[in-house]
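Look over this record before class:
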Amino acid sequence: MTDDTDAVTLATELTIAWLSNPNTRTTADDVPAFLTSMHTAVSGLGGAVAEPAAEDASQEHVPAVSVRKSLASKDHIVSMIDGKPYKTLRRHLSTNGLTPDQYRQRYGLKPDYPMVAENYSESRRVMAKKIGLGRKAGQKVEKAVESVAKTTRKGGKAALAAAREALGSES
């Protein structure tokens, strides 16, 4: 009984402190709800409400769609959380407080379960190749030399040598 009385007293004191803050703007209707939530929080600190939290952690998550349906389209991946299609799941998972590994573990997915739709991944790959990502610096110079050699009138080995000399003297 003393623990419950202490929790009520402490919750009341915290509520009074909250209301005495000049920045707190509330109506009289909100005070009982705040007091109740404060009492629940204070009681939870004492260990009285520890069991419901344990139940939430062991709660079985039911997927909104099957694994097969989530990967049925190449244009999007259907989320097992809400059943909506996404090109990439990373932002959606972070808004739900999950990492890709936690998501895979929650729904029993394989470690190689994709987080990005196949067509979206391919379009990003093509764009990256187009702007030159993933190439070594020398490869870019070689392609430039070859394009210069094709546009010159000399042609052949002489044009390649001239282009390489021109690029070598500029660097």
